[in-house]
Design goal:
By secondary structure, the chain is mainly alpha-helical. It contains 8 helices and no strands. It is globular.
């Protein structure tokens, strides 16, 4: 904690910004930090910020429905978008799903969509071996859109991984002699 005459530290201010969806405070603090450190160091600084429960800034923004701060965080170059909490190894995407289930399905769905668009991996499992989609009942009307977002993103990533394997196999195979056409 900072002393009374210093005010809140940058870490404390950023945690507060994530909790209150105060994007102005987020930009004010990060703009000051950008003047004193390269962007890789800024990303490392942001990646290392946790609250007392082991939640990273992305988890905090998702758990409080702080859409604008979540968006600003995901725009930071080199930011780790799939950090795991200490308590249950959940990702920010897991937290978006919990928010959708417990508080506001449309907002949680949009936050999950934004996380997926930024590169969060819906295939990452928490310590209970659950992927974010495993927390959603596809038949629950208010969460159907969320289930579809997660399913489509999983499908895209799985297909891309499969295509990469085929390309890698072709690259490694080389030529094993002339083809029938030769």
């Amino acid at each position: 904690m900072a002393s009374d005459d210093e005010g809140a530290s940058p870490k404390e201010q950023l945690i507060e910004a994530a909790r209150r969806d105060n994007v102005e405070l987020f930009h004010e603090v990060t703009d000051k930090l950008k003047k004193s450190m390269p962007k890789e160091q800024l990303a490392t600084f942001l990646n290392d910020i946790k609250d007392s429960w082991g939640n990273y800034l992305l988890h905090l923004a998702a758990s409080f429905g702080s859409y604008d701060v979540l968006d600003a965080l995901l725009d930071v170059e080199h930011l780790e978008c799939d950090p795991l909490t200490i308590r249950d190894s959940s990702t920010p995407l897991h937290t978006c799903v919990q928010y959708a289930k417990e508080r506001d399905a449309p907002l949680g769905t949009e936050m999950a969509r934004m996380c997926c668009d930024a590169g969060c991996d819906p295939r990452v499992r928490d310590k209970y071996s659950r992927k974010p989609i495993d927390l959603v009942n596809e038949k629950e009307g208010s969460l159907k859109d969320l289930w579809n977002v997660l399913r489509m993103e999983e499908y895209k990533l799985t297909e891309m991984a499969g295509m990469q394997t085929v390309v890698d196999d072709e690259d490694e195979g080389g030529s094993d002699g002339p083809s029938d056409e030769d």
